[in-house]
Protein 1
Amino acid sequence: MSHFELSMLRLMRAMKVTTDCARYYLAGALVEPIEGGGAWIVATNGTVMLIQKDESAKAPRPAIIRVTPAEFEPEEDEFGNVSTTWNWGTSTIKIPTGDIYSTHAAPVSWKENEPFTHAIAEFVEKADRFPEWRSAISAKRKDPRLAVPDERYTAVQPGQLQHLTEWAIGFEIHPAEPAHAQTITYVGDPNSLGVIMPMARDRDNHLPAIMTAIQANQS
């Protein structure tokens, strides 16, 4: 196999998660071949993680890939509606296998059509530098800060949740025990799983003061 063939839509969702990443080996998404066909596309910034299964992907080897699309030129359709961003939909990107740290101009196509645009694809690091993402989902985090009832460690930051949900039709957050990851599932997309890394949470389930006040004034 001479190239990667991946869902551009899933790659661009993954790129949003890497936006706030401080570690260079997390600046791209891990593409991991699945035996029998397809690939996992996994992205994390150390706080949240997005796991996607690209069932039609072709991946000759594991790789950490960063993709930067061409700048979109706003265009107006016949009804006067103006598009300001790419609608990746069913598009795929073909990336030459390349060497570690190599950069390529990779064609992006919709269905079986000729390439419509190109994106810059970079192999940013060796795949084995990426964290063991499977164990991160189930492992209990051993961090003394998680025992501290401080809002910095008990609340989800809006930006973190936005990276995992801004593209979704709807989503559901699944609670977890303290120091374990919380997961997010998506309406209409069973091949995606969002993960919020472990944090401390009050398991006594005290109602906030405003809820207590509301219930006290019920007729």
Protein 2
Amino acid sequence: MFSYRIMFLLAILVAVAGETLMLLIISKWAKFETRPLYILLLAGSIPSIASLPWIWYIMPEFFAMTTLNVIIAEIIVMFCEALLIQLITNYKYSQSLVLAFAMNLLSYILGILFF
């Protein structure tokens, strides 16, 4: 099997690709205010790149990686990522929270499927 670092790199690639696609789909489907593509790509990738190392490297140093702890961490990350999305896109926080929820749900499901 792959080393932990390789698994992390694969996880970040899957998360960034999946979450960015989710952001693009939802912002279009929900008819959020139009933003340049590069802004949406940044909003889809920066939150994952910023938060995934915390889940993979920092959290295990302090907490057991139980399902409950991972879910709690994902909820905390969702609120932080919503703030980053808001700062990058200038969407309302409520819109950013919807995006962050959908993005993290997809990422969690992909994590279960692939890792």
